[in-house]
Each structure stands twice: as C-alpha cells, then as structure tokens.
Amino acid sequence: MPEFQSVRGFHDLIGEEAKKFRAVCDLIKRKLALYNFEEIVLPVVEFLEVFQRSIGEATDIVQKEMFAFQDKKGRWLALRPEGTAGAVRAYVQNRLYAIKPYAKLFYEGPMFRHERPQAGRYRQFHQIGAEVFGSIEPVVDAEVIHLVHEILSELNLKAVIEINSIGCKVCRPDYREALKQHLNKVEGQLCEVCLDRKDRNPLRVLDCKVPTCKEAVRDAPKMVDFLCNECREHYSKLKEYLTALSVPFQENPHLVRGLDYYTKTVFEAVSTELGITLIAGGRYDYLVEELGGPPTPAIGFAAGVERLYMLLKEIQPEEPLYMVIPFGDVVDYALLVVKALRSEGKRVELSYKRAGLKKQLELANKLGCRYAVLIGEEEKEGGFYTLKDMETGQQVRVEFTPAL
RNA sequence: GAGAGCGUAGCUCAGCUGGCAGAGCAGUGGACUGUGGAUCCACGGGUCGCGGGUUCGACUCCCGUCGCUCUCCCCA
Fold it and tell me: What's CA A172's distance to the chain center, in Å?
C-alpha cells in the first residue's frame, strides 16, 4: 500500500482509459457543434443555495451527497453535483436572455457527489451537458433527444431511450393528489422509504425498485392521463417528431427524475448491457425564474462520460508512430531528422536510450512503433536516413538535407 | 447510511489441517557494438495492507483497523 493514495471515489485515468475518456468527450463535442451549441465554461464551485434552490431541498443530492464547505467569510459553498444549476445561474447573471431569443449552451467538466462509489459511480465524475433556454416548442425536446440518440449510436452503445411527461404547475398537483390517494390504499405494500416518500414526494414511489412497491404501483393512476391540454399536446407532438426522426423510444409512465426542477418531458438513456443510466435530462420551465431570471422555458441533458467510456470497446487507431534511433555520435544529425519529420506532421519519438541498434529496435518494438528511422555514421556522412518498416522489416534509404 | 467479498513482487495470482515467501508475465543485463518481434541464459525485486492476540513458531487461526471492489438506497 503506497503512503499516499487518491481520495476514495477520485480516480486517475491512465493510458487506454484516458484515451477512451477523450474519445467520448471529443465525439460528443463534435456532435454538439453540429447542432450549433456554444460552449460555456462554468465554475466548479457555487454558493450552496444555487443547488438547494434548483435541485430541491428534499432530494438526496442536496440532503446527503454534496461536498459543501464554508469559505473564510463563513459563506456556504459547494462543489457542483450537476451542471444545470450553474448553467442557469450563469444564464441569469449574464442576462443571456437579452441577447438572443433563445440560447443553446453546453458545458463539460467534473461533478462531485459524496456517495458510496461502485461500478459506474464515482465521487468525482464527468459530465457533458447541453441546455436550450428560451423555447417551449416540443421540436426542441425532439432535437435534444435526437442528439442523445445520435451520440449513443455513434459510440456504438446499446441503450433504450425512455421518455415520459411529468406535467406542469397546472396538471401535476391534480395527479399528485390522485396518486396519493392510490398510495394510501396500498399503504401496506410499501417499503419503509416509500412510506416516507408517499406524502413528501409521491412521484418518487413510482420508480422504487422494491418488488412490493412495484406491485403496489402497477395500477396506480398515470401522469399521462392527467396532463392538461398544453402538456398533452406537447407530449404527443414530441412523440410525433421522434417517430418522424426514426428515434426509437419507449414510453415509461413510471419514469421520474430525482431532481425537483423537471417539468413536462423527462427522458433517460439506459444501457441495455449494464442497466445504468448513461445520459438523462428533461425540461425545466420554471427554473430560470426560480433563480431570478425572467420566465424562460428550458430543456437540457447530461451525459456521464465515465459510464460511456467504460462501455466503449474500441477506439480509433492513432497515427503511425516513428522512432528515430541514433547510434554512434550522430545525435546532432538525428535531432534535425526528428525536427523535419515532425514538421511534416508525423508522430515522432526520438529514442532516449543510449544503446546499440539492437536494444533500440527492441525499444521501438515495445513502444509500438510502425517505423524506425535508423541513423548511424554512414547515414550522417551520406546525407540520408534509413527508414525501416517494423511490420514488414523492409528498409529504404531516404535522402535528407537539413533545412537551414 | 446498510450489507457482502477481497488485500502476498510493477501486473495476474498460487501458497493445503500453522513449519525457510513462490510461479507466469513485466523489468534489467548478457555470446550479437548496424537490425526488433512468443530464441536462449542470468539477475534484481516483498513491512504477505496495518496493529494486536493465540502459539515454540502466523501469509495461514482470532480480534480490531485501514484500503479496494461490488450490491442496496440514489443517480450521470
């Protein structure tokens, strides 16, 4: 056991893992650019209240998963547990609503949640999130979910996209009541946690995994049957558009999200392989106003980078690697060859091992080089280098005149 | 917050009902100082997670502790 170790739930990404991590980020960012999302670089720390107000006081994230601390003036700050709250705060603070009719923003970076680590769950993890502010049109929801679908299929990951509508200020209270009444009837079957949730946050009972709760909730009234005209219309338009786009989706009337700010559309992309959520999001039409901005409908999603890259099988092969091998008193000449090759855009490793040709070829092999560039006295004097193909073993003489 | 499993070489792991700490891979060196890949030979490498207990003797048994992994809760 080493004397110093990384903190629980905080990990180093090395070699292949780091490459996969980058591959996922790069792909998603390329996609976001095609949809014309603009990057916003956000702080990792916000005032605690930003999260309490947006995520919701009663949620697990706020109640027990935040890295919260006081600064020197005694103000409560927190490491961000998710990105939307900060994005909304920035949108309001910088009055982005005054610049364009609507805004499409994305962010990436680490998020922090103080919970027990396990497969696909870390205390520091990374998300790439995107938010659209300022449009209530269901076509926006469709575009966002389409984007999620494209990301998944380009990464070659199998997942089902589940969607639901959880209504708005107008219709949700009625549903809540109806659901509560149903839950009271089946009280006896509910687990301990759900008994507590029943009055505080009855919707959450819907996606409890305890078998008896699932049973109890089977015949519960469904939100979709209680939607007001506006929400019903919104939801059916969304489905219509998704179908037109050939985005496969599955309606899940029990899909509820753990954050309070959601309204209308919610969705989740669940890995068929691992059963964990890869990408999730939804509409949050009151949050901007809640954080002090003008009434502004919005929708967004967040992709869990670790969860995506851990499922990645293969990544793009890298550029072929050249190793320049000087043997004898020819380092000065070798340096010029290295410089010239790199200026041609080639990926070049100069051998840092002072040894004979044999040892250095071994090294080139270990580092996975495609080509070795052999440089001895002969090459230096003759003004050339010997290019060796490490796969075929063939060698060619390449004339070389150092640029001045 | 609740539960389970595991900590032995850089890595993967053996090590029996207590009796000298092991293998494979990796690494380093070498007949070969201008030719590599699964050729051969040699070598280095350990607080057996840590602390205590039982014992003539503990990697092994017991207690504690720390760490890792996984599951539940919840979530990306």
Answer: 30
The third-level CATH classification (topology) of the domain covering A16-171+227-309 is BirA Bifunctional Protein; domain 2 (3.30.930)
Structure confidence by residue, pLDDT tens digits, A282-298 = 999 999 999 999 999 99
Contact A372, A364 (CB under 8 A): yes
A111 DSSP β-pair partners = A125
A5: nearest nucleotide, CA–C1' criterion: B67
pLDDT tens sequence across A149-162: 999 999 999 999 99
DSSP secondary structure of A326-364 = E-SS-HHHHHHHHHHHHHTT-EEEE----S-HHHHHHHH
Same fold, A16-171+227-309 and A321-399: no
Helix (H, G, I), strand (E, B) or coil at A122: coil
Closest CA to A305 of A105, A106, A167, A126: A126
Domain boundaries, chain A: 16-171+227-309, 321-399
CA of A332 to C1' of B23 (A): 46
How does residue A1 score in pLDDT terms, banded at 50, 70 and 90? low
Strand B nucleotides below 7 A of a protein CB? 1-3, 7, 27, 29-30, 32-37, 49, 67-76
CA of A1 to C1' of B59 (A): 16
- Quick one: residue A134, left, alpha or beta (phi over 0 = left, psi -120 to 50 = alpha)? left
Q: Which fold has domain A321-399?
A: Rossmann fold (3.40.50)
**How many Cβ atoms from other residues are within 10 Å of residue A219's Cβ?**
10
